[in-house]
Amino acid sequence: MGALQGGGGARPLPRLLLLCAACVGMARAGNWMYLGVVGVTPLLPQGDQEVQNVSTSSAVSICQHLPGLVQQQVAVCQSNPDTIKSVSAGARRGINECQYQFRNERWNCTTGVDLDVPFGYTLKRGSKETAFIYAVTSAGVVHAVTQACSSGNLTDCSCDMSKQGLSTPEGWKWGGCSDNLRFGIQFARQFVDAPEKERHKKFKRVRNLMNLHNNEAGREAISRLMKMQCRCHGVSGSCELKTCWRSIPTFSAVGDYLKDKYNGARQYKRKKRSRSSRRRDRSRGRRKRRSRRNRRFPVGKDELVHIHKSPNYCVKDPKKGILGTYGRYCNKTSRGADSCDLLCCGRGYNTQVVRYVERCHCKFVWCCYVKCKTCVTNVDVHTCK
Amino acid sequence: MTTSAIGGCDADHRVLFGAIRQWGNQEKRGRVGVAMGRASSQRVRAATAVVTATVLLCASTPVSAIQWLALSRVTALAVTPREQVTPQACESFHGSLVRQQVRFCKDNPDFMDSVKRGAIWAIDECQFQFRTRRWNCSTLNDETIKEYKKRMKPKNTPETVMVSNKTERAVPVTSPPEALQSVKPNSASARDASPLPRTSARRRRGKKRKKSKGKRKTGVVGLYPIVPQGVVLRAGTREAAFVHAISSAGVAHAITRRCSSGELDVCGCDRSVRGVTPHGFQWSGCSDNIAYGVSLSKRFVDARDRKLVQRNKARGKKVSSRALMNLHNNEAGRKLIEENMRVECKCHGVSGSCELKTCWKAMPTFREIGEILKEKFDGATEVRLKEVTGRAELEPNKQYFKKPTEMDLVYVSSSPEYCDYDLNSGSLGTHGRKCNKTSRGLDGCDLLCCNRGYVASQERVKERCSCKFHWCCYVKCRTCIRDVTVHTCN
After folding, report:
1. B177 and B131 within one domain
2. Hey, which residues 315-354 in chain A have their CB within 8 Å of chain B?
3. pLDDT value at residue B171
4. Cis before residue A344, ω within 30 degrees of 0?
């Protein structure tokens, strides 16, 4: 057994080390989002039956070898080793949703060239886009973890039983498997917020406060969109008996909600205080109270907050990590954000003719084959100059 | 974005040359004395610089090919003609028109006012379509020249301000005699030895240039849209393509309109639209004679570039891609009108029962043409010259792009950024432009101001409001004053 274990444990290690060597230089501490791009599967030991049942000792080693996690995240990972897969799935869900929501915008939520540091430059800024990324990935983690709980993939949590057996004001009784949002949120708070909290403790920067706020806004979005689902039982759906449970929203609904919040995101500007007023404050001993107040932004919990203006995403700027809109597909007839006018920033567009060869007018011929014709369609495709 | 009366550049020219002549006289006097002073030599140098600068601004690059658009500001051409354009008047346009165009003017004096009207429409439409863009189709006028002067003004000693390079070009416009007088004592006092032959040579060269230019530029110059040149000198940009297309369309449109109005003997309605339609109606009424307008527009507008192409071909030289591009775009503008002709009908019979319907073919409005052309502008194709068995053609720069149709705009050179002031490349910059703070489009402050930032200011707007109709018959309004926040680019 010892030999077997050694073999199973030793094999993934070089791979891990290789990955770490690649990451260490680039991965900024606390950028756990790469888990959504790279995934954990290449990092986790695979194959052998023995390793499939992840034992505690190997889980510990996995958690320690995941690059870019801060101490607390490693600790969370070690206490719930199964959840790390959900974290990865959640981050991916968030990134996919972000790319879907922004598919027509000048900034289209590209993760960047470097897979290990997704959104590298965008995260450095404190713009609206940064706010959205933080919110959507944190929401993604909540979503994935909660779903994993309900479907029984995690050992640490199950359905939300807190309401089981209680009756509703309408006289119904709670039953079924309510999604365990509380666990999801708590987990996300511990895992996702950890690096920001650590850095905030060290540097006391507004930036970290902003990230914390937006993480919370993402989680808040899910809890606000929670809905009740019911199923009728009884003779032909007569609803003699109804089972109701609370379920989390679909993630696209969360994406829509957050996109809406993105459009109305507030910019936080720190008021510049004169030296004299600062001195006055200090003499009156207000300092402590202010710092406590400063820990929060004066906006609602579900609002997105940013501190910097968004840059101009029109022109390529490798220094700022902006890809520009050159070569993007645009819609000639649209008037929205994906219109050639807005997307190409007035540079105009090129037209290409794309030939589609498709099978069409298919017919079933007795017996037994399908006969099709080939249809050729030429479509004009416009790309930004 | 204002346009002003004719003669901004031209007036500059004449006054300037006057000034140079006077300086020449002074120099003679100086030579009779002891030696040339450094100051006067400086002046001569300045004079040459002035001439070159003027030539640069008025005659050459940013605007070379569409000079006939200057007709839009010629007062000799009334838009509602009372009297015909005389051949002398045609001759006087020599500065802006090429020989063939002058001949056109003499042959068709009736149409010159339509040409002018077409030019006005074209410029107005161009400015309307591009009002929210960085390049907003500004014309070269007094204000632009003044701005140019202001920017080029060096900030050192007063004498260099008086007698130095390009700034001087515009000084005579304001007060030439003073400028000269203030220089005079200076030249008299400072008489250091200076290389005499060199200065005289310079002077001669300057004079020569002046003479040749003066001869050529006798007519109207200036006041056409500043069309950017692109990176490669004399290569046409997208913007140039648009201006060419809209102006040739403008002339065709205006001439056709005038024919349809029935004021002329030479042309009238289109008689070729006759017979019965497939729907059983009979053509009647006055169809716009677009073929006539197009042919005249072709003759007038294409003259310069056609001549260039023919001359190059005759001499066995390479055909200029710019000329081919202009011809293509001119044609595109005209073709667009032809393709967008529509049928307009009017019903007759008891209370519009349409027992009888009169239908005719009508041109689209010029605004529609402008809108379509603007779309074509966005989708314009970058082309390059390709010689196929002795015939020069334009083909897309990249093979996989769609080949432009007859109605698509083409261009040869990519446009500058238009962010900063650089008249030589045709860019006036966006400093001081008004922008829309909330827009994400091109007129938004971020894009229009090129990330330089903007300032907000309050502006007081006077409006007429709460208007009331009084019997009979006038409207009484109150004046309301409103404060509006205006954002201006830095």
Report:
1. yes
2. 332, 337, 340-342, 344-346, 348-353
3. 25
4. no
The contacts of residue B92 (CB under 8 Å, 6+ apart) are B76, B218, B219, B220
- pLDDT tens digits, residue range B403-423? 999 999 999 888 888 888 877
pLDDT digits (tens, 9 = 90+) for A16-28: 333 333 333 334 4
Q: With an 8 Å Cβ cutoff, are A350 and B381 in contact?
A: yes
Q: Are residues B106 and B76 in the same domain?
A: yes
Q: Give the pLDDT confidence score for residue B59 in this predicted structure.
A: 37
- Identify the CATH homologous superfamily for domain A329-384: Wnt (Wingless and Int-1), C-terminal domain (3.30.2460.20)
Which of A314, A337, A349 comes nearest B378 by C-beta? A349
Q: Are residues B38 and B178 in the same domain?
A: yes
Tell me the domain boundaries of chain A. 2-320, 329-384
Q: Which residue of B has its CA nearest to A309?
A: B446
Q: What's the start-to-end Cα distance of chain B, in Å?
A: 17
Task: State which of B346, B381, B411 marks the end of a domain.
Answer: B411
Is the pLDDT reported for residue B94 higher than 70? yes
Interface test with A, best of B378, B415, B418 (most A CBs within 10 A): B378
**Does the beta-carbon distance from A346 to B400 stay under 8 Å?**
no
Q: Which of B118-127, B217-226, B411-420 has the highest mean pLDDT?
A: B118-127
- Chain B residue numbers with beta carbons less than 8 Å from the beta carbon of A349 are 378-379
CATH of residue B442's domain is 3.30.2460.20
Q: Which residue has the tokens 């298919």?
A: A362
Dist CA A231 CA B480 (whole Å)? 63
**Of B313, B315, B314, B336, the residue nearest B324 (C-alpha):** B313
**Does the residue B224 lie in any domain?**
no
Domain extent at residue B471: 430-489
Residue B149 and residue B57 share a domain: yes
Pairs of residues, one from chain A and one from chain B, whose beta carbons lie less than 8 Å apart: 41
pLDDT at B365: 94
In chain A, whose CA is at the least distance from the CA of B446? Answer: A312
Q: Is A218 helix (H, G, I), strand (E, B) or coil?
A: helix
Domain identity same for B434 and B407: no
Domain termination site, one of B356, B381, B411: B411
Find the angle CA(B204)-CA(B210)-CA(B214) to the nearest 5 degrees: 150
**What was the ipTM of the complex prediction?**
0.73
B227 within some domain: no
**Is residue A121 over pLDDT 80?**
no
Beta strands at B474-489 and B434-435: parallel, antiparallel or unpaired: antiparallel
User: How far B374 CA lies from chain A's nearest CA (Å)?
Assistant: 10
Residues B402, B462 within the same domain: no
- Same domain, yes or no, for B358 and B450? no
**Phi-psi group of B74: left, alpha or beta (phi > 0 → left; psi -120 to 50 → alpha; rest → beta):** beta
The verdict on B258 and B166 lying in the same domain is: no
Q: A80-94 as b/e, with b when 16 or more CB fall inside 10 Å?
A: bbbbbbbbbbbbbbb
3-class DSSP state of B205: helix
What is the DSSP code string of B350-382? GGG--SEEEEEEEPPPHHHHHHHHHHHHHT-EE
- How many domains, in total, are found in chain B? 3
Of A178-182, A278-282, B215-219, B238-242, the one with minimum mean pLDDT is: B215-219
